[in-house]
Design brief:
single chain, 271 residues, alpha/beta, Rossmann fold, 9 helices, 48% helix, 13% strand, binds NADP nicotinamide-adenine-dinucleotide phosphate
């Protein structure tokens, strides 16, 4: 495992206006990395305030670059604007994401399409563009924020889980292709984490499954993730409980049983 030095490097983070992305920006700044932070255009003012706070507290350069990653030109525009803002970029953190909870055939089609655009097309496009830059420059790294949902079917948020499985497989395959280039890829696979993502429309206020899986905080996830990233980890689950559930238990059980269990585990019960 090759260690990654972050001091003085430039890190691009999408979806840095809240939750895990915002917490990651704090941890990368703490390591002395300069930042380019992405957000939706409507969040630019709030992100500017966060950027000013990071500059003052950690003495690093921080640029806020708005772009709607759900649009067709959004990811390419974001890539161009990030390069213009920072010049050389060393690390891409694909983090911006959406969730939709409900029946596959009842959720609005446009919402599902938007989720697919942000969670897969934007991840893929930014990986594709930045990795080309990194290979030409002889080095760089990608941190793809995936999920524990990437490892098995997730009834009631089936499309979300499928987008994370896409990111997981793409990351692990491309990582192997990049041998010898100086470019690495890590996936971060957080458990359920208390962020606005889980407070959106329709998502159950409390899943009984939290009693088994736990509910993490963005600060804990980000602190552990940046430490693991620096150490050159490949697939990183942030806690032992997630590791046992998603890397051990679900792998030894029949796949059909795991899918059946996901129906009950993630079922909304009266809230
Ligand atoms: N929370 C969990 O339980 C959990 C668990 C595992 C993995 N994850 C993953 O962690 C990542 C961050 O999620 P989070 O939990 O921190 O949720 P969050 O607080 O809702 O953050 C999502 C971020 O993505 C941004 N975003 C959404 N749509 C966008 C678009 N079209 N263009 C640009 N930016 C957009 C949001 O901007 P706005 O604030 O402006 O909407 C926000 O900054 C996601 O990839 C998620 O799948 C989360």
């Amino acid at each position: 495992m090759k260690k990654i030095e972050l001091q003085g490097k430039t890190v691009v983070i999408t979806g840095a206006s809240s939750g895990i992305g915002k917490a990651l920006s704090v941890e990368f700044a703490r390591e002395g990395a300069h930042l380019v932070l992405g957000c939706l255009p409507a969040e630019k003012r709030a992100l500017d305030a966060h950027a000013a706070h990071l500059r003052e507290k950690f003495g690093v350069r921080v640029a806020a670059v708005p772009a709607d990653l759900a649009t067709e030109p959004g990811p390419r525009r974001f890539h161009a604007a990030a390069r213009k803002a920072a010049g050389r970029i060393d690390v891409l953190v694909n983090n911006a994401g959406l969730m939709a909870y409900g029946s596959f055939h009842e959720l609005p089609l446009e919402r599902q399409m938007q989720l697919i655009r942000v969670n897969t097309i934007a991840y893929f496009t930014l990986m594709r563009l930045f990795i080309e830059d990194f290979v030409k420059a002889g080095g760089g790294a990608v941190l793809n924020v995936s999920s524990i949902s990437a490892f098995q079917p997730t009834a009631h948020h089936a499309v979300y889980g499928a987008t994370k499985a896409f990111v997981q497989n793409l990351s692990e395959a491309v990582r192997e292709e990049l041998r010898g280039t100086g470019v690495s890829i890590m996936t971060l696979n957080p458990p359920y984490t208390d962020t606005p993502l889980l407070k959106g429309r329709d998502f159950p206020r409390k899943l009984w499954w939290y009693a088994v899986s736990g509910l993490s905080t963005p600060e804990i996830v980000a602190r552990r993730a940046v430490r693991a990233f620096r150490r050159g980890r490949v697939v990183y689950l942030t806690d032992a409980r997630s590791f046992i559930l998603h890397m051990v238990v679900q792998r030894v059980l029949p796949r059909r049983l795991v899918a059946w269990m996901s129906y009950y585990v993630l079922l909304k019960r009266g809230n």
